[in-house]
Design goal:
nucleus, chromatin regulator
């Protein structure tokens, strides 16, 4: 008895709804020779990006083109030699045919072109009281023989001459020959011997300094290093002091226009008709400082020796530090209008001081012109309808400006009007006439109840 009998199902077998699909047989690929199993599993049989070489090809012998190569001991000559010396060396011979041509290393034989001179050229251009013609000929022969190796030339030279003397004579003769043989001086102006002539004194000094440096002891080297460190510290301290001084000068220069403006404002306030006669008097100018150490910038006082033009530039910069670029250009334009040089051609001590003083005066003049324009614009904007008649005294800025004019014959309330006029008056220093004497006070009446 099985489950079908319990459920009352027929014992016929069920039709298979899912038939087993036959598996497709994959094409079995054989692992190629020369490829490891791991590499083949990673690539999956794909062709590699870099073409691989079969190991069997590495074991093959190269196929020769039927060439028979031998090495033979053969003679050779070199064009670099002038004595036709014949030497031997091993040579690779192909099919019994030896190589032809010049020696392969002859191309490295480079010779220096040495100029030759004639008797006439020597007598005309190359004579020197310190050198004879025989010594000059020996020098050029040795230079050609040893390819301008002047140390060797000095060793082989018969007379006692230094390397610097030999160089100086050789380059002087070569330079004179180039200039003499050229059609014009411009044709050889770019030649190194003409453009940069040999400096005998500089070469001697260079070797002397080099010898002194190389012969120093360890103690001297440490001392030089300490001197350099101290010099660096002094330079840095001077730079810091100069920056602080320039900042202080700029701060002081910025205060000068403010002081000038305040003084001009006080002068305008104190103007009165009675003082018009004094306005024509020339202003008192403080005496210009004579040329002394005070005119020299402090950054240059520490130096005992300095260029006057450098001091002049710093003095001009300090004098015009408060002015802008446009004002500085106007100062220079004013100098040109006065037929003065922007910088003196003969910068002596007195000339530099006077030039700086002239610049300061021009700067002051420009500031006063600017303030005058400002005052005129302010006055025209304050009372546009006011027209000043000639001969009319100027009114003071305070006291009389807004006070109405009342004649003496008109009075309101007896002495009360005088008191009101007296109250309206400004302080006595702004009045044109002295104040009237005080009037006697009369006792005030008591107010009654009816009044």
């Amino acid at each position: 008895m099985d489950a079908k009998d319990i459920l009352g199902l027929p014992k016929t077998p069920f039709p298979s709804s899912q038939e087993k699909k036959p598996r497709t047989q994959k094409d079995s690929q054989r692992k190629p020779d020369g490829v490891s199993r791991e590499v083949y599993a990673l690539t999956g049989g794909l062709a590699p990006l870099v073409p691989s070489l079969d190991a069997s090809h590495l074991k093959r012998r190269p196929q020769l083109d039927d060439e028979k190569i031998t090495w033979q001991w053969l003679p050779f000559t070199s064009s670099a030699r002038t004595d036709n010396l014949q030497l031997y060396h091993w040579v690779r011979v192909v099919n019994g045919v030896p190589p032809t041509g010049d020696y392969s290393f002859a191309k490295y034989n480079k010779k220096v072109e040495i100029l030759k001179y004639t008797e006439e050229e020597y007598e005309k251009y190359l004579t020197d009281p310190m050198w004879t013609k025989e010594e000059t000929d020996q020098l050029f022969d040795l230079c050609e023989r040893f390819d301008l190796r002047f140390v060797v030339v000095a060793d082989r030279f018969p007379s006692d001459r230094s390397v610097e003397e030999l160089k100086s004579r050789y380059y002087a003769v070569s330079r004179a020959l180039l200039v003499a043989r050229a059609p014009s001086a411009g044709d050889v102006s770019g030649h190194p011997l003409v453009k940069e002539p040999y400096n005998f004194a500089q070469e001697v000094e260079r070797k002397r300094l080099l010898s002194s440096v190389l012969s120093q002891t360890k103690q001297q080297e440490r001392k030089d290093a300490e001197i350099l460190i101290e010099a660096k510290r002094i330079t840095e301290s001077r730079v810091i002091a100069k920056a602080a001084e320039e900042a202080e000068q700029a701060a002081n220069a910025s205060k000068i226009p403010e002081a000038n403006e305040k003084s001009s404002a006080a002068a305008d306030v104190s103007v009165s008709p009675s003082s018009n006669a004094l306005s024509s008097a020339p202003p008192i100018v403080p005496p210009t400082s004579t040329v002394d150490s005070a005119a020299i910038p402090p950054s240059l006082r520490m130096h005992r020796v300095y260029l006057r033009t450098n001091a002049l530039d710093q003095m001009i910069q300090a004098a015009s530090s408060s002015a802008g670029l446009r004002t500085t250009k106007r100062v220079e334009q004013t100098l040109q209008e006065l037929v003065c040089h922007v910088k003196p051609k003969v910068p002596t001590k007195a000339v530099c001081a006077e030039h700086v003083e002239l610049r300061k005066e021009i700067l002051t003049l420009l500031n006063l012109q600017k303030q005058l324009q400002y005052k005129e614009a302010e006055a025209s904007g304050r009372d546009p309808g006011y027209v000043e008649t000639p001969g009319t005294p100027k009114r003071s800025l305070r006291g009389d400006q807004d006070r109405p004019f009342l004649p003496d014959s008109v009075s309101f309330g007896g002495e009360r009007s005088g008191k009101r006029d007296q109250k309206r008056k400004a302080p006595g220093r702004y009045l044109d006439t002295p104040p009237s004497p005080p009037q006697s006070k009369r006792p005030r009446k008591l107010k009654t109840a009816d009044g």
